[in-house]
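Regression check, 2-hydroxyethylsulfonic acid case 258:
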Amino acid sequence: MAISMKDKVVFVTGGGAGIGAATALEFAKLGAKVMICARREATLAEMESKLRAAGASDVHAFVLDVRDREAVETAIAQLPAAWQAVDVLVNNAGLSRGLAKMYEDDIQNWEEMLDTNVKGLLYVTRAVVPGMVKRNSGHVINLGSTAGHMTYPGGGVYCASKAAEKSITEGLRIDLNGTAVRVASIDPGMVETDFSLVRFRGDVERAAKVYANANPLTAEDIAETIVWVATRAPNVMIQTITMTPVSQANAFVLARKG
Ligand code: 8X3
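Current build output:
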């Protein structure tokens, strides 16, 4: 039987846009207490009112760059009392940068991807999970990617970051074995969000081409799946969900129509 999310504390990193924002909204609809962080203040203020309107029983939104280890530690340690007991952590904050050949790439791109997708995820996990262990209750849902299963041209470092997410998820699950804390990875393929716009640093035309006639997944498709995972009965651990649009067989095989 599905478990209730009413008044559960759900923490979504990168909750200001894309999959993170859609996920936060989906939990809000179930009456959860929704906590989001994002790098940009502007997106947070807008999200806060949307989350309240969607039905969140309370909202806590704060600026945080998960790459900043000290800021992560301080932000989690200093959470208001009502927000300290995180029931569901959605490690969503992540990004890709460029599609250049590795031997020609700007090293800054690698720093951003690895620092956010790998180290940022680890910092947040390290700060939140001890409380879950103490309470013997909680759910960690990491955003992986089909990119972690199969490397594609120009994506070596992004794919490596998602392959790392896979190993980290598996390792955390092993380390938590014997507790009631659950660990899942949601691994999407093509999802139409700002992902490609960020990858191509605001090049709207290039980003649009990625999704053209591909009937991609939406952020809501992923959000609904995350909520489904979080609401399974306490004895059920969904380990990994790989999801692609029907048009996408793998990173290389995509049926564009039209
Ligand atoms: C996003 C999927 O294929 O664009 O993680 O890298 S892909």
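Comparison notes: The first strand starts at residue 9 and ends at 13. The chain has a mean pLDDT of 97. No diff flagged against the previous build.
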